[in-house]
Amino acid sequence: MSNLKFRWYAVFTRSRHEKVVAEKLWQRKIECFLPLREVLSKWKDRYKKVQFPLFPGYVFVHVPIKDRRLDILTVNSVSRIISFNGEPAPIEEAQIESVKRLIFSALPFDPYPFLAEGDSVEIIRGPLRGLQGILLEKKGIHKFILSIDLIQQAVACEVDACDVEKVP
Description:
Helices cover 18% and strands 40% of the residues. It has 3 helices and 14 strands. Strands 1, 2, 5, 6 and 9 form a 5-stranded antiparallel beta sheet that branches. The longest helix has 11 residues, at 93-103. The N and C termini lie far apart (42 Å). The model has no long low-confidence stretch (mean pLDDT 87).
């Protein structure tokens, strides 16, 4: 193999095919990481713990991309490797290690929407559902800002970040 620089990359999969893709990648001797979370699901007659991907649609691979790109892309149910300007975009090792550390820590965790301060958002749940504004964070508390541009005034209220969605 040529330049053996191992980096982490995100592979986008068909919907609900993450576990199948991870298994096929391991069969091809490609190191991968599929962070899972356990959820208590109610079935007709009982409750059962089920594992779901923490990041639906994604499996992470640790490879020298130039040597293994085709091996990854030819796996059934793989849609693409996340890229920028046509080149696979590596993920910082520390970010993957942080997720691994959290997963194996036994601490409770849940997915959280990726929102940045200043993003335009829409409230998707609760009495303010449908309102659009700006998301700000102050002292660890998320604030939803409603503005009246003409008079250059605004009002803020606290919101739970899982109740808002980024506006495209």
